[in-house]
Every structure is written in C-alpha cells, then in structure tokens.
Sequence to fold (92 residues):
Amino acid sequence: MNNKKNLFEEISKNTGLAKKDVEEIFNLIFINVEKKLKSSEEFSIPQFGKFKIIQRKARQGRNPRTGEMIKIASQKVIVFRPSKTLKDKFNN
Fold:
C-alpha cells in the first residue's frame, strides 16, 4: 500500500464503503486537521499521535550546487510525534 489510491481501495474493501466515500472522508479529515493546526498549532489523534507546528529559527545553510553560504529564513514546520500505542505496535 504505497499511495492514496491503494489505501482507499483497501479501506473500501475492508469496510464495504464506496471508494469515493472513503476518499471524501479522508479529504474531510485532512481539511479538519489543517484547520485545527492553523488555529491552535497542535492536534492529537488518540492512539495515533500528535501533530504540532513549531517555529524554526533563521539559520545559515549552504547551497549544495555552488557551496555558497545562504541565509535560510525562519519558518513554521509541522512535526508529527507518534503515540506510545503506535510505537509499541511497531516495536513488538
């Protein structure tokens, strides 16, 4: 299962829902996660993990093609931290 299409097909097969309905549900989930992150900068899904927005500081970097030093601007990034339950499923 390496892309959304395969994921939707698998869920459709397991639940009996139409692929179109599965896709619509996933799109609604992602839209709502995005809204939550924009409004509060943190969003948790129990037994799955936590999405959080952090502010990265401006820093110096290097252009890999030229080797020239460049300034990388400060930016917000999304970080995902898996729950203990999810980590335990992969480590047992």
About this structure: The helical segments are 4-15, 19-40, 84-91. The chain has two domains: 1-40, 41-92. The chain has a mean pLDDT of 92.
